[in-house]
Amino acid sequence: MQTWSLVSICVLLGVVVRWGVSLNSYSGAGKPPMFGDYEAQRHWQEVTSNLPLQEWYFNTTDNDLNYWGLDYPPLTAYHSWICAYVAKIINPDWVELHKSRGYESLTHKLFMRTTVLVADLLIYIPAVVFYCLYLTDGSSKKKVSTLLCFLLYPGLILIDYGHFQYNGVSLGFALWGVLALGLGWDVSGSMAFSLALNYKQMELYHALPFFCYLLGKCIKAGPMGRGLFLLVRIAATVLATFALCWLPFLSDPSQALQVVRRIFPVARGLFEDKVANTWCSLNTLIKIRSIMSGDSQLYLSLACTLLAVLPSCFRLLTKPTFWHFKLALVNSSLAFFLFSYQVHEKSILLAALPVCLLLNDLPLIAIWFLQASTFSMLPLFLKDGLLVPYVVTSLAFLFFSLYLLSALDHCSEDELRMGAYNKLLVFLPKLDLACIVRWKFYVSVAVMAVLSIVSVALVPPPHLPDLFPVLVSTTAFLHFFGTFVYFNVVQFSEPPSRKSQKKSN
Amino acid sequence: MAAPVDSGYWFPALALGVSFLKCLFINAYHSTDFEVHRNWLAITHSLPVSRWYHENTSEWTLDYPPLFAWFEFGLSHVAQHFDRNMLQVENLNYASPSTVLFQRLSVIFTDVVFIYAARECCRCVQEQKGPRDVLSRPSFVLAVLLLWNFGLLIVDHIHFQYNGFLFGVLLLSVAKHLQSQHLQGALLFAVLLNLKHIYLYVAPAYGIYLLRSYCFSQDNKDGSIRWASFSPLRLLALGSIVVSVCALSFGPFVAMGQLPQVLSRLFPFKRGLCHAYWAPNIWALYNILDKGLAVLGVRLKLLDEAGLPRASMTGGLVQEFQHSVLPSVSPSVTLVCTLLSILPAVASIWLRPRGARGFLRCLLLCALGSFMFGWHVHEKAILIAILPLSILAVESREDAGIFLVLTTTGHYSLFPLLFTPAEFPIKVSLMLMFTVFSFTALRKLHSGQGSLLRPLEVIYLLGLVVVAIACEVVFPLSPWQQKLPFLPLLATSVYCSAGICYSFLRLYVSLLRRDDKPKQL
């Protein structure tokens, strides 16, 4: 069969699965007074369509910032404005100022879900298709298998189509950036990434690798002459893109400052809820929030994050190849997730995207991590009533990715890039690392399954109401930390030689 | 590296994949058939057997044969662990989340029968020689065509019915015949008839085939029947199987003296010629011809508008359709037409049996013939032809061409089943997925033998796209939406009936042409 037909079948299957998930409930459905992210997105449509642009980010009589105030960069606001424009044509009640608060109806849900699907079809899905077709190795069947697994990653589907958010847009732009860099179009790549940054500030998790890769490339091309020229062009593109996005807010410095203040709320604390990062997991042992002041918490997390990001970025700067770029994206986003300030559980999607890029190279580890990342959001899914789609999509992803990428057959030490460990662990007797990894994988999947069942079926003891969410987040944290260490080691070991790559194809 | 799908596990993977997909539709729209089956669960669970076919609290009375009632009885024992309230007859239109979950899961789990049957069918197809890529192996293509069938997915898992289970029994029986295990095949078909009597449509093919090719063990050299080879023992075995299954199913009701009551429930002739939405068959063409003549007559002043039956068309959704110019059609007329339409096919396998594949072709013609001419046919009945035709399509190029026309039109004619906007993306994507696969896979399978479709067929199928866009996208936005709400349904059924009539004729031609072949040799 031709590749085009396989690709279109995969894309259509991806659409069916997305829409199947979207038939389920969303965050905060029927839960006044605050509802959830669904209402937040609707409220932004209400605000952007009814108020002048100067008031979007300010607390005014018509714009109560305490009720889901806009806290994303301008592109999100523009997107809301476009959606609101369509909404107004269909039914003006959906975005009427003040009166539409907490508006819920089946038709409105259908409209909101459609906006997500349209954005995905325009931005995220084409980027995934092109990435898998042009930037992965192997036969066309292997490429299509990777494409299918990439498209069916449950975490993103459940958050965007179940919980309700537009992560596909920012991740899609970032992916376009990666795609362009992979094809050698550095200028358009940096533009795409700037758009991603202007859609969600969380894309900063990916910013350092982009910066280091491009800088490293410029240096390699000669700091004077061609390299400098490239650097200037990239810088100009980024500045121009930013200026274009922020244009309406630049007329008045107070406007721009207010937007920045809204985007980076430092006053909200080290972490909220249960999130699988270092601070929340440490909290079970040491109550950091009560022994340190707010400011020192901020500096501590900043220092830790920088320390964690530094090695991989430095390595990328000296070796600006696409392979190192992909690894650095994983390492940097994981470092940010694990150590930075005010992390949400959904931010793991930012680490999941670069891991998806490695599905073809390191199938077992990638699948393992992606499964753990979906699992880490379990408490959120349970709150939103997404149990059935969570179970179905997770099992389907686990089974099909292991089967299609034959992950369990391809995990020799060489293919897992674990050569470096033997050098690191010289003092230990020689172990069959591949076998250990496989067993760890089985045990970890079993633990995730048991914890999922327990969280659903059992009532926690009364004196420990948060027992299961804490167990889930701690387990997920261990996985993330392990993956972080693993990918750093891979980045510092020798890149895969052409020969071994040929063999594995 | 060997591609992963080259390992032998592709069949479980396909089956598991489609089962996961079905689970995603649990919260999708379901039709009144959901309530029908819930009511039957309640009837069989809470009432004694003697009341099953008398109960009429709900308008959805039990109108399937007794074995299906026992099937519901069995399900109800699992259902009580989900939600006891769904098992009360008075709880009309009860659809709590756990009821929905149970009913959906019951369809998904009973589909295991269908999956097993598909596996057996895949074992029967002739594999071409030489190493081939798994994606273009006939058994793989057949597995996808059966397991991922678009019509079955939306009818069972969104609209809600138990067709997967029933078709599983039918396909299993066909597979047994292909494997020359005729007694098992006959047993399965007898069971199937007692599960859902719509399969009576294909009973003539079974009866004649078994009589001719099983009870007569030898043929003359020219292929004609050798009367001396008749084996009474075989006939007795067949007869006792069929009679004992029917006795098991209907016996208790005969003993209670309820047979007339049961039969009156099974065969309600009070319904109209066509279903609310006309199934794409001859009668749809007949109706539209009648309407066309009436309009023409009024325009030309040959007919008096006041004399015509009122509202014959504005109620395009009304069940009783009164013809204004052409004679009205009675159930007996449709019966005669149906019998006449299947007669040549049945006669052909009697006169010149061509093994199990000839039987399969005859079964298809019976299914399509009764679909074309039957009384009050549902559009869903087209699946009885589409699924068995998949087996022939992977084996011969000509059948593949017929399959593509019939399947694409037949599946499109199922679109009006899902009219809710929320399910629109699902039905479009699933249909496209299945169509893209069937076109490319069958073309690859029969590559090197010329194109599968004739130019006219390609134009017809492209016209289907135009009709689809006009009906699903343009029409709802146009001003006619208020005045002529039935127009899309009308256009769909008339356009599709042309394609299905055409496939019916081509299938007939293919059967009769094969008749000639032995003479030429």
Automatic annotation (TrEMBL), chain A:
<feature type="transmembrane region" description="Helical">
    <location>
        <begin position="348"/>
        <end position="370"/>
    </location>
</feature>
<keyword id="KW-0328">Glycosyltransferase</keyword>
<dbReference type="GO" id="GO:0042281">
    <property type="term" value="F:dolichyl pyrophosphate Man9GlcNAc2 alpha-1,3-glucosyltransferase activity"/>
</dbReference>
<comment type="similarity">
    <text>Belongs to the ALG6/ALG8 glucosyltransferase family.</text>
</comment>
<feature type="transmembrane region" description="Helical">
    <location>
        <begin position="390"/>
        <end position="408"/>
    </location>
</feature>
<dbReference type="GO" id="GO:0005789">
    <property type="term" value="C:endoplasmic reticulum membrane"/>
</dbReference>
<keyword id="KW-0472">Membrane</keyword>
<dbReference type="InterPro" id="IPR004856">
    <property type="entry name" value="Glyco_trans_ALG6/ALG8"/>
</dbReference>
<dbReference type="Pfam" id="PF03155">
    <property type="entry name" value="Alg6_Alg8"/>
</dbReference>
<protein>
    <recommendedName>
        <fullName>Alpha-1,3-glucosyltransferase</fullName>
        <ecNumber>2.4.1.-</ecNumber>
    </recommendedName>
</protein>
<feature type="transmembrane region" description="Helical">
    <location>
        <begin position="110"/>
        <end position="132"/>
    </location>
</feature>
<feature type="transmembrane region" description="Helical">
    <location>
        <begin position="441"/>
        <end position="461"/>
    </location>
</feature>
<feature type="transmembrane region" description="Helical">
    <location>
        <begin position="323"/>
        <end position="341"/>
    </location>
</feature>
<feature type="transmembrane region" description="Helical">
    <location>
        <begin position="467"/>
        <end position="489"/>
    </location>
</feature>
<keyword id="KW-0808">Transferase</keyword>
<comment type="function">
    <text>Dolichyl pyrophosphate Man9GlcNAc2 alpha-1,3-glucosyltransferase that operates in the biosynthetic pathway of dolichol-linked oligosaccharides, the glycan precursors employed in protein asparagine (N)-glycosylation. The assembly of dolichol-linked oligosaccharides begins on the cytosolic side of the endoplasmic reticulum membrane and finishes in its lumen. The sequential addition of sugars to dolichol pyrophosphate produces dolichol-linked oligosaccharides containing fourteen sugars, including two GlcNAcs, nine mannoses and three glucoses.</text>
</comment>
<feature type="transmembrane region" description="Helical">
    <location>
        <begin position="144"/>
        <end position="161"/>
    </location>
</feature>
<feature type="transmembrane region" description="Helical">
    <location>
        <begin position="228"/>
        <end position="249"/>
    </location>
</feature>
<keyword id="KW-1133">Transmembrane helix</keyword>
<keyword id="KW-0256">Endoplasmic reticulum</keyword>
<keyword id="KW-0732">Signal</keyword>
<keyword id="KW-0812">Transmembrane</keyword>
From TrEMBL, chain B:
<feature type="transmembrane region" description="Helical">
    <location>
        <begin position="235"/>
        <end position="255"/>
    </location>
</feature>
<dbReference type="Pfam" id="PF03155">
    <property type="entry name" value="Alg6_Alg8"/>
</dbReference>
<feature type="transmembrane region" description="Helical">
    <location>
        <begin position="358"/>
        <end position="375"/>
    </location>
</feature>
<keyword id="KW-0256">Endoplasmic reticulum</keyword>
<dbReference type="GO" id="GO:0042283">
    <property type="term" value="F:dolichyl pyrophosphate Glc1Man9GlcNAc2 alpha-1,3-glucosyltransferase activity"/>
</dbReference>
<keyword id="KW-1133">Transmembrane helix</keyword>
<comment type="pathway">
    <text>Protein modification; protein glycosylation.</text>
</comment>
<feature type="transmembrane region" description="Helical">
    <location>
        <begin position="486"/>
        <end position="509"/>
    </location>
</feature>
<feature type="transmembrane region" description="Helical">
    <location>
        <begin position="101"/>
        <end position="118"/>
    </location>
</feature>
<comment type="similarity">
    <text>Belongs to the ALG6/ALG8 glucosyltransferase family.</text>
</comment>
<protein>
    <recommendedName>
        <fullName>Alpha-1,3-glucosyltransferase</fullName>
        <ecNumber>2.4.1.-</ecNumber>
    </recommendedName>
</protein>
<dbReference type="InterPro" id="IPR004856">
    <property type="entry name" value="Glyco_trans_ALG6/ALG8"/>
</dbReference>
<keyword id="KW-0472">Membrane</keyword>
<dbReference type="GO" id="GO:0005789">
    <property type="term" value="C:endoplasmic reticulum membrane"/>
</dbReference>
<feature type="transmembrane region" description="Helical">
    <location>
        <begin position="198"/>
        <end position="215"/>
    </location>
</feature>
<feature type="transmembrane region" description="Helical">
    <location>
        <begin position="9"/>
        <end position="30"/>
    </location>
</feature>
<feature type="transmembrane region" description="Helical">
    <location>
        <begin position="458"/>
        <end position="480"/>
    </location>
</feature>
<feature type="transmembrane region" description="Helical">
    <location>
        <begin position="139"/>
        <end position="160"/>
    </location>
</feature>
<keyword id="KW-0812">Transmembrane</keyword>
<keyword id="KW-0328">Glycosyltransferase</keyword>
<keyword id="KW-0808">Transferase</keyword>
<feature type="transmembrane region" description="Helical">
    <location>
        <begin position="333"/>
        <end position="351"/>
    </location>
</feature>
